[in-house]
Amino acid sequence: MEPSKPTLTSLQSTDTLHSTLNLVESSNGQENFKSDTQNNDQVPEDVPAPIDTTRIEEKPSIAKEEIDVVPDGGLRAWLVIFGITCCTFTTFGLTSSWGFFQAYYQHSLLQNSSPSTIAWIGSIQYALAFLPCMIVGRLFDLGYFHSIFVSASIILVSATMLVAQCTVYWQLLLCQGFLSGIACGVIVGPTTAILAQWFKEKRALALGFTAAGSALGGTLFPITARALLPRIGYVINDQGDP
C-alpha cells in the first residue's frame, strides 16, 4: 500500500503557513540591514578626515570682459596708430625706395657691378623685413617689446648712417641689405601686433592709416633724395633720409 500523503485540512491553514514564513524572512532582513548599517557607520582609523572646502579661499580671477576690453578709439589709441604709421614710414617706406638707390649705385658707386648683382642688396633688405617676424612675434608675447624695439631702432639708425660711408659692394650689402633689413623686420613685427590691442571695430580703419605710412615713405624718400643729392652730396643726404 502507498503511504498516505499529508493533506491540509483547510485553506486557512495554508494562509497561516505563508504568513509565518513571510514574517520570519522580513525579521531576518531587518536584522541584516541593521548590522550592515552599524558596520558602515564605523569609520576605519586609516581613512583621512574630509576636507572642509568652505574654508578654502578662492583666488580672485579676472573677468573675461576685463581681458577683452579694447579702447577702439580715444586720444591714446590714435597716438599709438600715429606711432605705428611713423614706423611703417621709416621701415617699409625705406625698403620701397630701393629702385632709386639701385639706379644711383649703378651710375656712381657701383659702376663695375652688374644690375643683377646690385639688386641683391634690395632683395635681401626686403626679404629680411618680414623674416624676423617669426621670432619677434614670440618675444612680443613674452613681454619683450620695449627691449627689442629700442635695439632695432638703434641698429636701423646706425646702419643707415654707415651706408653713407660705404664705398664697395660688400659694405653696402652688409649695412643696407642685412643690418637695415633685419632692423626693419624687428620693428614691423611687434608694432603690427600692437594695433589689435587698441582697435576692434575700427581695426580696418587703423590698419589703413598704418599701411599709408609705408606708401608715403616710399613716395617721399626718392623725391627727397633726388632733390638733395645735387646740393649736399651722397653722404649727408643718405644720413638724413630716415
Automatic annotation (TrEMBL):
Highest taxon above the source species: Eukaryota
Transmembrane segments: 77-98, 118-136, 148-172, 178-198, 205-225
Chief location of this protein within or outside the cell: membrane
Cellular component GO terms held in the UniProt record: membrane
Sequence segments annotated as region (Disordered): 28-53
Keyword terms: Membrane, Transmembrane, Transmembrane helix
Protein name: Major facilitator superfamily (MFS) profile domain-containing protein
